[in-house]
């Protein structure tokens, strides 16, 4: 009958020296002298097939990938028991070990590259400040001089444009055409009164009156056609 690792034979071996209580690790890590080694099932606990798991370490290990965990194990497997104890009690030793990990080196390298690029961009932006100030002053001068003149000219042109648009609008054209019809009607009526008052002879009256009536009817037909074709 074979025996599991960590059974009575292992329990008979002398226990290592207790770790000093001045370790900078959390109490949950250094509370037992076997915290630096993986927990193994004892003879009494092997019967129920249940291995207790520390609840306070599950969240911290969940973010470690298998490749990173394998690299850490490969780094720690050749270290002696004294070296492992030193990692638990010496913060500088743990820091040196932590900085020697390849993922940490990669992260620090990327951080340094990003910091250097940020510094370069900052210096480049600071070098552009005088040019920016110069352009800002030029914009201020243009805004107070050339832009004001251009805006005034633009306002005048817009006023003229609105005036011309109103003058040649369909409603304005119809109104002026109606006024021309009324003027022609008044002129023809005045000419007819002159004939009745014998202020003008018939020979002079006929061509003038004919011309006025022709103009009146031409404008009347044009006004009627425009009024029916132009929407209200």
UniProtKB/TrEMBL annotation:
Q: Is Magnesium set as a keyword in this record? A: no
Composition bias, kind Low complexity: at what positions?
Answer: 26-51
Where is the secretion signal located? none
VPS37 C-terminal domain span: 151-232
For this UniProt record, the keywords arranged alphabetically read as follows:
Coiled coil, Endosome, Protein transport, Transport
Q: Which residues form a coiled coil?
A: 147-194
Biased composition annotated in UniProt, kind: Polar residues: 7-23
Q: What is its main location?
A: other
Subcellular localization: Endosome
Question: Region Disordered: start and end of each range?
Answer: 1-63
Enumerate the Gene Ontology biological process terms.
Answer: protein transport
- Entry's Gene Ontology cellular component terms: ESCRT I complex
- PANTHER family assigned to the protein according to its UniProt record, in alphabetical order: VACUOLAR PROTEIN SORTING-ASSOCIATED PROTEIN 37 (PTHR13678), VACUOLAR PROTEIN SORTING-ASSOCIATED PROTEIN 37A (PTHR13678:SF2)
Which family is it part of?
Answer: Belongs to the VPS37 family.
Descriptive protein name: Vacuolar protein-sorting-associated protein 37-like protein 2
Q: Which organism is it from?
A: Forsythia ovata
* Native organism taxonomy: Eukaryota, Viridiplantae, Streptophyta, Embryophyta, Tracheophyta
């Amino acid at each position: 009958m074979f025996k599991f690792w960590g059974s009575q034979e292992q329990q008979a071996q002398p226990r290592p020296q207790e770790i000093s209580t001045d370790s900078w690790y959390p109490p949950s890590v250094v509370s037992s002298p076997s915290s630096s080694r993986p927990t193994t099932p004892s003879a009494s606990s092997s019967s129920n097939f249940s291995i207790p798991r520390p609840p306070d370490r599950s969240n911290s290990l969940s973010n470690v990938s298998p490749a990173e965990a394998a690299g850490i194990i490969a780094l720690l497997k050749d270290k002696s028991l004294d070296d492992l104890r030193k990692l638990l009690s010496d913060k500088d030793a743990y820091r040196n070990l932590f900085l020697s990990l390849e993922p940490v080196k990669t992260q620090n390298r990327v951080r340094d590259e990003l910091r250097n690029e940020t510094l370069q961009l900052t210096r480049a932006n600071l070098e552009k400040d005088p040019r920016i100030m110069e352009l800002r002053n030029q914009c201020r001068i243009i805004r107070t001089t050339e832009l004001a003149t251009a805006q005034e000219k633009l306002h005048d042109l817009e006023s003229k444009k609105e005036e011309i648009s109103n003058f040649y609008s369909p409603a304005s054209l119809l109104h002026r055409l109606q006024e021309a019809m009324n003027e022609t009607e008044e002129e023809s009526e005045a000419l007819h009164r002159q004939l009745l008052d014998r202020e003008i002879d018939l020979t002079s009256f006929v061509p003038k009156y004919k011309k006025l009536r022709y103009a009146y009817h031409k404008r009347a037909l044009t006004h009627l056609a425009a009024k029916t074709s132009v929407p209200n």
